[in-house]
Amino acid sequence: MLKQMEGSRAVAEAVALCRPEVVCAYPISPQTHIVEAVGEMVKDGSLSPCEFINVESEFAAMSVAIGSSATGARTYTATASQGLLFMAEAVYNASGLGLPIVMTVANRAIGAPINIWNDHSDALSQRDSGWLQIFAETNQEALDLHIQAFRLAEELSLPIMVCMDGFILTHAYERVDMPTQEQVDAYLPKYEPRQVLDPADPVSIGAMVGPEAFMEVRYLAHAKQMEALKLIPAYAAEFKAVFGRDSGGLVHTYKADDADTIVVAMGSVLGTIKDVVDEMREAGHKIGVLGITLFRPFPITQVRAALQGAKRVVVLEKSMAIGLGGILAVNVRMALSALPIDVYTVVAGLGGRAITMRSLHALFRKAEKDDIDPITFLDLNRAVVDKQLERERATRRSGPAAEAILRDIGVVAAKLA
Amino acid sequence: MSFQPVKFYQTGTFTVGNRLLPPEQRSVQSQEKRYNSINSGHRACQGCGEALGARYAIDAAMEATNGRLICANATGCLEVFSTPYPETSWQMPWIHSVFGNTAAVATGIAAALKVKRQQGERRNIRVVAQGGDGGTTDIGFGCLSGMFERNDDVLYICYDNGGYMNTGIQRSSATPPAARTATTMAVGPEPGNVFGQGKFLPAIAMAHEIPYVATATVADLRDLEAKVRRAMEFQGARYIHILVPCPLGWGTASHDTIRIARLAKETGVFPVFEAEHGEVKSVLAIRRQLPVEEYLRPQKRYAHLFGKTPQVEVIARLQALADRNIRKYGLLEGN
Ligand SMILES: Cc1ncc(C[n+]2csc(CCOP(=O)(O)OP(=O)(O)O)c2C)c(N)n1
Ligand code: SF4
Ligand SMILES: [Mg+2]
């Protein structure tokens, strides 16, 4: 049914349709609306039976999820930013134990400086944690991906993060097509755990493993993730059969077939990029887009296939590997190894900095002429940075950098545009 | 057997656990059909109080639940010595996640079980969580307090050996004053752990006003078993704190584990009591009060107190702490 609703609400309703049995909640923006909505459904009885647990930290949220998933309950939680880091030890543990927990990450920057706005630093900090990571482009896709995520997680016995841009998606009111309970029930079978804590058949989960077997256990985690590369297209096809629309998959190309320049990105910024590409196409530019839906496992073959005809690739990412450049870009480069294609890293939109069509137009036009730095920071205020560097050269006690920069800019709150 | 109730004390141990009693009066441990939840063959040190405490407690909990029990275990000696891959000592469903989250894992298990019951599961399966003092009083404290505060249906058992033993005997917030550990070295003007720090978790558990809190030692098998049994009669959060001497960390003889644990209780160093909903309901009275020196002297972690010039002042401070316990919990009453 078509409904106008907030992204968080859409995700909450989709999660509820998946009949989770245990949901843990700990507040952090911009994820809060999702678990609040699920909690309300539990409390008013419309989602039942389900245990909604207000925990004392994200570390506890993931730990409760580990316990309930290992006891055979379909388990969901959501977090963002500092919360994801706070639970990191348990995040690795959940995947190491092979527990199919589904978690929404409402993507948000990581401090310091503390910042509540959107970028992908949080999810990407956990890229090697053994969780599958899927990035939604729209609220419809976020909703759909959660339904697919439970199916996939439980089939593989691996946990999945469904990543959606904080505020940009979570707080945006959009029209979505909300499936019916019958559709979801037809698509998502009952959770049949591979391992379960049950007195009738006692097992030890989480035993100590030494050098004699650790490599093998870790290798299996990798091998199992790689299976997702086959399962995801199959599940997306099945999804289309049941729900009547395309959603999910590994990667998506847009006007990329004959493109000399292909822009690679993840998440909601793809919408803006496509608008710019549409305008540039009309003006005769041979430019296209590759949207990456699945970040872990990284679909190397599909990325290579999509990009190999291009002359250059511009990876526009809302994250950075400090001391190296990009995170997504490094992954894309891996897919393009030995191909004569220039790859540019563009770090953009950190901490919610708006990525405007105007900036993208300028960027892409320069990129087409190979006139951008290998690592470019979109809309970086160079003067402000230089001034701070100069201050640090001149004064030993130069003080906290963030405050000094805010004073230079002359604002006290975060500048969005 | 006679109809008269038998008072039978094993020499020196006061333990009535043996097979001379009629079956219904025997301790869980003395029954041929005890659960052996932690099977033999694990890698604990000889005389490990923690191995013994866990065996007593978990077997008693298994007995109380007819074997319908799931266990969550924190990282630490108990976890390491009981599950060297590919072997496991646990004859029960058991999970180890990480060091500091065991109470929360147990909350998750309890939540899943509650949903399963609503879905028609007929068995009443219960949850026990366990960890060392470090995993409980320090790194796992946030999760533990959260579990208490929500009154989740979990029995949490802390095996207190007064330090981080698994990593090589470092100080925890349960390390007693003056004790030597690898991080409270027996050097300098005030050797060993400082006075005036640390916490007594049973009192903090009581402050949460959870249904049941108890302390116990491995010296009193019957008392420990009774407390576990009592704990399983409650719904909601329960906490049992068991003093478990560690021969390696304390520098005691393997065969002295029970004796040292008893001395901790008989000197007043470790108060043994039980509390319901935040109020002390009963104490295990000291039978024959002994000076703390008797408890301290056999332990190498206190050896610096008994050198050429005995540290009488430090010993007197430790005595004062024991005396305070005795007053506070009324440990001499009822004698
Ligand atoms: C997050 C984290 N920090 C530190 C450790 C290292 N570590 C493992 S066991 C342990 C000591 C356990 O002490 P305690 O809980 O008292 O149990 P014991 O070994 O004394 O029985 C430590 C510090 C760890 N595994 N995880
Ligand atoms: S170090 Fe102590 S607690 Fe650990 S196994 Fe040895 S005796 Fe037991
Ligand atoms: Mg310890």
CATH fold group of the largest domain in chain A: Rossmann fold
The computed structural class of chain B is alpha/beta
Distance between the termini of chain A: 36 Å
| Assembly state (oligomeric) | heterodimer
| CATH architecture classification of chain B | 3-Layer(aba) Sandwich
> Into how many domains do the coordinates of chain A divide?
2
Rg of chain B to the nearest angstrom? 19 Å
Q: How much helical structure, as a percent, in the residues of chain B?
A: 25-40%
Beta-strand content estimate of chain A: 15-25%
H/I helix tally of chain B: 11
Q: What is the name of the CATH class of chain B?
A: Alpha Beta
Number of strands of chain B: 8
Average per-residue pLDDT of chain A, rounded, comes to 96
Interface with most residues? A-B, 46 and 46 residues
Count of individual beta strands of chain A: 16
- Ions, cofactors and other bound molecules: thiamine diphosphate, iron/sulfur cluster, magnesium ion
Largest sheet of chain B: 8 strands, mixed
Strand composition percent of chain B: 5-15%
Mind telling me the CATH superfamily name of the largest domain in chain A? Thiamin diphosphate (ThDP)-binding fold, Pyr/PP domains
Please, how many domains of chain B? Answer: 1
Topology:
The complex is a heterodimer of chains A (417) and B (335).
Chain A (H helix, E strand, L loop, with lengths): L1 E5 H11 L4 E4 L6 H12 L7 E4 L3 H13 L4 E5 L1 H6 L1 H10 L4 E6 L13 H5 L6 E4 L3 H18 L3 E6 L7 E5 L3 H7 L16 E2 L8 H30 L7 E4 L6 E5 L3 H14 L4 E6 L1 E3 L3 H8 L4 E6 L10 H8 L6 E6 L9 H12 L6 E3 L4 H13 L6 H9 L8
Parallel strand pairs in A: 2-3, 2-4, 4-5, 5-7, 6-7, 11-12, 11-14, 14-15, 15-16
Antiparallel strand pairs in A: 1-8, 6-13, 10-12
Helix pairs in contact in A: 1-2, 1-7, 3-5, 7-9, 8-9, 10-13, 11-12
Chain B lengths: L48 H16 L4 E5 L3 H6 L11 E3 L5 H17 L7 E7 H6 L2 H10 L4 E6 L40 H7 L4 E6 L3 H13 L4 E6 L3 H4 L6 H10 L6 E4 L2 E5 L8 H5 L15 H18 L6
Parallel strand pairs in B: 1-2, 1-3, 3-4, 4-6, 5-6
Antiparallel strand pairs in B: 5-7, 7-8
The complex binds thiamine diphosphate, iron/sulfur cluster and magnesium ion.
